[in-house]
Amino acid sequence: MNTPILGAATDDTPISPLAALGIAVLAVSTSAILVRWSTAPSLVKAFYRVAFTVGLLAPVALVRYRDTLSTFSTRDLVAATGAGVALAAHFASWFESLNHTTVAASVTLVQSQPLFVAVGAWALLDERVGRRTAAGIAVALVGMVVMSVSDLLAPTSAPQPLLGNALAVVGAVTAAAYVLTGRSVRSRVALVPYVVVVYSVCAATLLAVAVGNGDSLTGYPLREWVLFLAMAVGPGIFGHTVINWALAHLESSVVSVSLLGEPLGSTILALFLFGEIPSPPLVVGGAIVLTGIYVTAK
Question: What is d(CA 66, CA 223) in angstroms, rounded to the nearest whole number?
Fold first, then answer.
């Protein structure tokens, strides 16, 4: 069992895992909004989101988990490194997708990660895929096709929706790679040291690619730095880190299904903050995708 963090459920501070999960879903729902608000290059804001998250978690890891950090096996370090690179690819592709398509489409498609986890586990780990899971994947794929062509049926204000949707799917695939790569490590290593190692590799990868791409890392106004920090504290700490903790206390299917609330929350926020009204075909396609994810993850 992972050592709880952030005041999570202990004998002294009993906090419901379901309540923590609810807060986490609300936190991750703000991610796309914060990314869209930022005008920095996608690689730069992805780098600072992860780097600030590492900065916030590293002191906890060094104080409470120093022994664990020093006893990572070579096998676990290799797996954690692979997970970090996959996570960097996830952030880079998804952040960029938000420059080209609507928040509703991007968040819904990137949330299709469970489908690719199921396919990857079948193809790479020889895990059985039942009829229900196969049916859920098929339904979700139909929805993804509908969403991808929704702009042809009802044009939106998104500049390049097909490109943005494709990048969001890449973000889902790389997120699945991140989950599959690190799954075995998480059964042996506590949450905080694991995510610090993975996030550190992720940040280093994003930094290298951003510098290689010629993106500037400095010279941004205070507003941008506030947004970078908000991405780390909200979606990073109170979002994904708490979700990882919840997985030790709740069934994975409960967590996966709960995360379907992220596209809904992000879409509502985008409606009020950006005036993005999803087209009917997009809504239909999104509903089909979420239904397929629900069937797959349940």
Answer: 35
DSSP state letters, the chain: -PPP-TT-S-SSS---HHHHHHHHHHHHHTHHHHHHH--S-HHHHHHHHHHHHHHHHHHHHHHH-HHHHHT--HHHHHHHHHHHHHHHHHHHHHHHHTTTS-HHHHHHHHTTHHHHHHHHHHHHH-----HHHHHHHHHHHHHHHHHHTHHHHS--S-SSHHHHHHHHHHHHHHHHHHHHHHHHHHTTS-HHHHHHHHHHHHHHHHHHHHHHTT--SS---HHHHHHHHHHIIIIIIIIIIHHHHHTTTS-HHHHHHHTTHHHHHHHHHHHHHH-----HHHHHHHHHHHHHHHHHH-
CB 141 within 8 A of CB 84: no
Global confidence as pTM: 0.86
Q: Can you tell me the distance from the alpha carbon of 46 to that of 95, in angstroms, rounded to the nearest whole number?
A: 7
The tens digit of pLDDT for each residue in 22-47 reads 899 999 999 999 999 999 999 999 99
Question: Is residue 291 over pLDDT 70?
Answer: yes
Looking at every residue in the chain, the average pLDDT score rounds to 85
CA distance 280 to 278: 7
Which pLDDT score is estimated for 9? 36
Using one digit for the tens of pLDDT, what is the confidence trace for 175-203? Answer: 989 988 887 787 788 888 888 999 999 99
Residue 258 vs residues 93, 158, 192, 218, 285: alpha-carbon distances, Å: 23, 28, 22, 37, 19
The answer to whether the beta carbons of residues 247 and 9 sit under 8 Å apart is no
Would you give the distance in Å from CA 221 to the centre of its chain? 26
Q: Using one digit for the tens of pLDDT, what is the confidence trace for 199-246?
A: 999 999 999 999 999 999 999 999 999 999 999 999 989 988 888 777
